[in-house]
Amino acid sequence: MSTVLPDQFGHFGRFGGRFMPEALIAPLDELTQAWRDAMADPEFTGEFERMLREYIGAPSLLYDATRLSDIAGARILLKREDLNHTGAHKIRNAIGQALLTKRMGKPRVIAETGAGQHGVATATACAYLGLECVVYMGEVDTERQALNVARMRLLGAEVISVKTGSRTLKDAINEALRDWVASVDKTHYILGTAAGSHPFPAMVRDFVRGIGDEAREQSLALLGKLPDAAVASVGGGSNAIGLFTAFIGDDVKLYGIEPGGDGFETGRHAATITAGQVGVLHGARSFLLQDEDGQTIESHSISAGLDYPGVGPEHAWLADTGRATYRPITDAEAMEAFRLLSKTEGIIPAIESAHAVAGALDIAKELGPEATILVNLSGRGDKDMDTAATWFGLGGKEATGE
Amino acid sequence: MSDVVALGKAGVAIRKANDAGRGALIGYLPAGFPTYDGAVDGVKAMIDGGADVIELGLPYSDPVMDGVTIQRATEVALAGGLRTRDVLSTVEKVAAYSDVPVLVMTYWNPVERYGVDRFAADFAAAGGAGLITPDLIPDEGAEWIAAADKHELDKVFLVSPSSTDERIAMTTANCRGFVYATAVMGVTGARDKPSDLAAPLVARVKSATGLPVGVGLGISNGDQAAGVAAFADAAIVGAALVKALQDGGPAGVRKLTEGLAEGVRREPRAPAER
């Protein structure tokens, strides 16, 4: 195994662990046991792999982005997670945990969602596996992402609009946890990222690590060697840990690209690791955005999927040990990369993934023309067209053409 | 006298009530709600109304164990600019008002941010008796346990109907003051019906420890308090008092507290039940 952490209590060095109500500790222990048993059972892993292959279309392509490479000045390979069913890497985790829910004999699933991608992925997995599904979504997000609310409802999920706190992703997580405390005997909480209490960071990593495992094999087939660097965007951190895990024991540089919002120096960002404050949020010790008193600060990013004031504990550990490097990309830089990839390769990325592309352009300059850089294109940009139309002035009467 | 040490400040107050043949009453209000001074007056009204132990909430941005009543109240407190140091000064004011022990109920991150030992030192200097920590389990609590021992503060961890016997034994071994038994699987808030999970949980806790056991989550009136006092050492009331403060001010808090205090005195308690 390339990855030996976390320890049996879920610690990645000084990060991770369980900062949770006692009421959830026994259920978390049961979940840990069920997950370990499942991962050791060929029947479970075989069914998971079958679903990845037949239902979501894995392995996703590794695409040699030659036109983008010409501009970047280094060879860029894109891991095309945007081509997965439902349009992002999130479905890997959702079907993995939904399958585990079935195995545990629980009939009901709850999930949180910000932009709606994880909610849609979970609603999809629940429709496919016949599970009851409730998705918590901040009221602000249900308004910003009405189309994804409709998708979830069409898939049979109940969407609950959360009206407390900042009415965004972190409050949706709070509300899902409140539901779970009261319903845990019949309900599994499909957390959408590699964060939260043990076993979630390690379990989610297990379900998304196919991204990097596939890309490693595909790189060897294409290049005869491994790439020099692997790059992914980091909000909670699931697409990045999914890419990084296969390469942690290799001589491959790892870069996590954080949402820099209006610019790190403005304070309006979601670059949790760059900000560097250690604390406890949503069940684990990690880096988080907080004020002097430890109250969570609201994050800012043009990308709803990266707009979260915390980050998974394994990323905190990778940053602390220096194994991975984390740096911010601003909204403006990400949107420039969004346009560049669209125009040069005919691929409209999710704004989350555009952060990784923008980061790769900088890294290409640093590593030079001989370098090969693997980028996780974690999702497609259909959901972001409203944002893009507003940002670039593409809509209606302003669309004068060129 | 290790028994006295384990009882701590809150435990002594609870046992004093039990020795008088009644259950103890633990009342919760958050600092800073509806205002800084309003919260001080509210807590004083709980003391005047007959609370044996005070549980003062430290408002936090992400209170996952709290239902909507306490969430809203703590949002108001934070929006009003309440700081951790204001919670400490609230403790100081309330501790100076009477001998009733004042514990603070706090999610973990504000304490970690303040500095665990520094918080314990400042809190002890303000006259605080101990902390109730709803999202800190003893497994992760080494730094707090060391600081609490150093500054002679009560450390109240929670047990739940879902806790295994092994976890109950480990958790109660790390408690000082009392053991907080959450009577329902769920968040804080007044409930119509008493939980049938509470009595079996208290029995399991009592087979593991000689510490007093307080039962909370869902108690809102004297009848429910009386029901809980029949099998537990203390009844813990939170959301109902917050609502009373919101609707009726300190006078409303005092009236409800008196009703609850009457409740815990109502049932004649046989010594064997404790």
UniProtKB/TrEMBL annotation, chain A:
<protein>
    <recommendedName>
        <fullName>Tryptophan synthase beta chain</fullName>
        <ecNumber>4.2.1.20</ecNumber>
    </recommendedName>
</protein>
<comment type="similarity">
    <text>Belongs to the TrpB family.</text>
</comment>
<feature type="domain" description="Tryptophan synthase beta chain-like PALP">
    <location>
        <begin position="60"/>
        <end position="379"/>
    </location>
</feature>
<keyword id="KW-0028">Amino-acid biosynthesis</keyword>
<comment type="subunit">
    <text>Tetramer of two alpha and two beta chains.</text>
</comment>
<keyword id="KW-0456">Lyase</keyword>
<dbReference type="InterPro" id="IPR023026">
    <property type="entry name" value="Trp_synth_beta/beta-like"/>
</dbReference>
<comment type="pathway">
    <text>Amino-acid biosynthesis; L-tryptophan biosynthesis; L-tryptophan from chorismate: step 5/5.</text>
</comment>
<dbReference type="GO" id="GO:0004834">
    <property type="term" value="F:tryptophan synthase activity"/>
</dbReference>
<comment type="function">
    <text>The beta subunit is responsible for the synthesis of L-tryptophan from indole and L-serine.</text>
</comment>
<dbReference type="InterPro" id="IPR036052">
    <property type="entry name" value="TrpB-like_PALP_sf"/>
</dbReference>
<dbReference type="InterPro" id="IPR006654">
    <property type="entry name" value="Trp_synth_beta"/>
</dbReference>
<keyword id="KW-0663">Pyridoxal phosphate</keyword>
<feature type="modified residue" description="N6-(pyridoxal phosphate)lysine">
    <location>
        <position position="90"/>
    </location>
</feature>
<keyword id="KW-0057">Aromatic amino acid biosynthesis</keyword>
<dbReference type="Pfam" id="PF00291">
    <property type="entry name" value="PALP"/>
</dbReference>
<keyword id="KW-0822">Tryptophan biosynthesis</keyword>
<dbReference type="GO" id="GO:0005737">
    <property type="term" value="C:cytoplasm"/>
</dbReference>
<dbReference type="InterPro" id="IPR001926">
    <property type="entry name" value="TrpB-like_PALP"/>
</dbReference>
